[in-house]
Amino acid sequence: MATISPLYEQTRESKVEMWTCSCRAEKRGYAALVEDVGVGALGWSKKNFFFGGNRVVKIRLQQQRGLSTELLRYKGPIHCARMIVREEGILGLWAGAAPTVMRNGTNQAAMFTAKNAFDTMLWKKHEGDGKVLQPWQSMISGFLAGTAGPICTGPFDVVKTRLMAQSKSGGELKYRGMFHAIATIHAEEGLRALWKGLIPRLMRIPPGQAIMWAVADQITGFYERTYLTNAPL
């Protein structure tokens, strides 16, 4: 029997979740928007519980300079994880969990709301009306909606990375938590520092959202034409 890769399964679940949240937001307005933030936060809390340690290890390894293993603090993923647990405790593997959950919950709400808004403004498309956008229309709406997430979640993304990257090597941790990190970065580097890395994120996320929505809208349109427009009142 053919097996489904974890990456494919995660992508499929994300598309189903995005379509479901989008329909709810259109039908129930702000109530669904608040619910989407909660659902997104809870969903990413679960994922962060299982995979948060991988992200911390990845960032610690990425920020090391040089190629000589003798000069590197962390010799590999397993050695890195052991060092983090030894110096910072088991919870060190989940550093940055709070801003990660906030970033992804806020990102979902911003993206779904923006996508529906651009569909309505640009193409007069409403959820459940049976109208199917052309792929190029979906790509434009998806691209524009994809910019909303990084702009709204910039501070959470910066704080997440700072919390994951810091270590106790020879001293205390600089940032004690999400709110302390936000206040410290703002005081020492200014407000704009909370959106560092925004341009690379805008170069990565909106193009991916454009492609994803071009596919998702075709699937959603097929469902609406087949089941919703012909459904008895």
UniProtKB/TrEMBL annotation:
Against InterPro entries, the record matches this protein to:
MCP_dom_sf, MCP_transmembrane, TXTP-like
Main localisation: mitochondrion
Family named by the database record: Belongs to the mitochondrial carrier (TC 2.A.29) family.
Question: What is the recorded name of this protein?
Answer: Mitochondrial succinate-fumarate transporter
Which lineage do the record's taxonomy fields give for this organism? Eukaryota, Viridiplantae, Streptophyta, Embryophyta, Tracheophyta
Protein's UniProt keywords contain Transmembrane helix: yes
Cite the entry's keywords alphabetically.
Answer: Membrane, Mitochondrion, Repeat, Transmembrane, Transmembrane helix, Transport
Coiled-coil residues are: none
Where would you find this protein in the cell? Mitochondrion membrane
Superkingdom classification of source? Eukaryota
Membrane topology is: Multi-pass membrane protein
Q: Where are the Solcar repeats?
A: 31-121, 133-222
- Give the organism, scientific name: Datura stramonium (Jimsonweed)
